[in-house]
Amino acid sequence: RFQQWIVLNLHLYFQIMNNTQKPIPKVRKQLSADALFGVVRKSFKSIKDPDEAQNDIPLADVLMSGFAMFSLKDPSLLQFEERRVSEEHNLKSIYKMEKIPCDTQMRTRLDKVNPACLRPAYADVFKKLQRGKALEAMVYMKEGYLICLDGTGTFSSDKLHCPFCMEKKGKKGKTISYLQMLGAVIVHPEKKEVIALAPEPIRKQDGETKNDCERNATRRWLEKFRKDHPHLRVIIVEDGLSPNGPHIRDLIEHRCHFILTCKQDDHTYLFNQLDIARKEGRSVEHTLVDPTDQQIRHRFCFTNGVPLNESNQDILVNVLEYWETKGDKTRYFCWVTDLLITQSNAYRLMRAGRSRWKVENETFNTLKNQGYRLEHNYGLGKKNLSMVFVSLMMLAFLVDQTQQLSCLLFRAAWEKYGSKKALWENIRSIFRWFAVESMEMLYRVIITRHSYPVAIDDSS
């Protein structure tokens, strides 16, 4: 097998050397996959091993093995175990592991790791994005980056259970054990990429017997977010469950602007105040034609300085109502925000509010259906295993999205196969048959394997 690797690598080498007409894409070294893998590993090395026993395998290698499993989109721990046995060279060369744990060792060691220990890895990758000015492409409003928050399920079973599992009754009366997470991503209405921030587990807390909830998780997330990013200017975008007094006070306390979906059935007092404002002439209405589609008409009605509800009249919000009409179909939306609404910014605020769906479409659906297998049970464990795996998965997703946003070499490899699933399959295939020394080399194998390398200017 090693001889086959040598032959294939020599073939690649001569193909590249003879291919002088079309240069291979350049790489932004600081934002390359290899550099980001190094950032992740460095962060893992700073995590204290919670297992007091003497271990032959460093915890950083165990964590990096879990990260590699999701980076390569292995569908199960068993398949990663097979990779560990047959592809040790590539795992060590690309992910810089000294020793690779077996699947049982990985489960046992990671189960004892506090998921919060992985937060610095997210922050370190984020700093690389900032220093590389890659985040400038995600700026949408001058008040800050748009951050979408939402919860999703990560585990559910009527057979398996751990002390942190929440419980509910199923349709047939069975007790269902389940876990969730609060996801957070930076989005831009005009971009497919999302930048993942560290998720917050939604599970029974230490010493608690009651189920956790999304609202409590959001409060914890805000506190941790501000410790990780004390000066980052952000606008929180959330669904219709969020416009309530305690949550808005939390957002204000943590210096976050907000655009929150508002449903009329849940806010009778607020909408009565809007009716009064319209009668008194304090509301502003205007209509415009969509700049990209002449068949779409946008109608706005906004009122600034309205009490949120009868119990929280000291919380004044600005309300944007919006109707989108195309042909004979009209859709209605409404948001409350702390940002002053004007005719000049109403359209941008509407686009920002509607970008909330990116946490569902570009994040959760991608994690569930494009190779990451969010809802697959890689292992529940007795303590933290499931959430540690979810955090490592999200971290791999962050690195992939960073590549999609800023690495032209990755984009060229993606374009070669047209879909993410096909790209992941070919990465695993080449990983299996080539002795590669870096992800840069692996991407170049993909680009040059069947045709000449593509020419890309990444000088910008």
Strand tally: 10
CA gyration radius, whole angstroms: 25 Å
Strand content: 15-25%
Share of helical residues: 40-55%
Helix and strand content put the structural class at alpha+beta
In round numbers, the mean pLDDT is 90
Low-confidence stretches: 16-22, 450-460
How would you describe this protein?
This protein has 460 residues and is an alpha+beta fold. It has 16 helices and ten strands. Strands 1, 2, 3, 4, 5, 6, 7, 8, 9 and 10 form a ten-stranded mixed sheet that branches. α9 links the parallel β5 and β6. α2 runs antiparallel to α7. The longest helix has 22 residues. The two termini are 41 Å apart.
Q: What is this entry, summarized?
A:
The chain is an alpha+beta fold and 460 residues long. It contains 16 helices and 10 strands.
Salient structural properties:
460 residues, alpha+beta, ten-stranded mixed β-sheet, 42% helix, globular, disordered C terminus
What is the element layout, followed by pairings?
Elements: H1 2-18, H2 33-45, H3 59-71, H4 77-86, H5 88-95, H6 103-110, H7 119-131, E1 145-157, E2 166-169, E3 175-187, E4 195-202, H8 214-228, E5 234-238, H9 245-253, E6 257-261, H10 268-279, E7 284-289, E8 296-307, E9 316-326, E10 329-337, H11 346-354, H12 358-369, H13 385-406, H14 408-417, H15 420-433, H16 439-448
Parallel strand pairs: 1-5, 5-6
Antiparallel strand pairs: 1-3, 2-3, 3-4, 6-10, 7-8, 8-9, 9-10
Helix pairs in contact: 2-3, 2-7, 3-6, 3-13, 7-13, 13-14, 14-16, 15-16
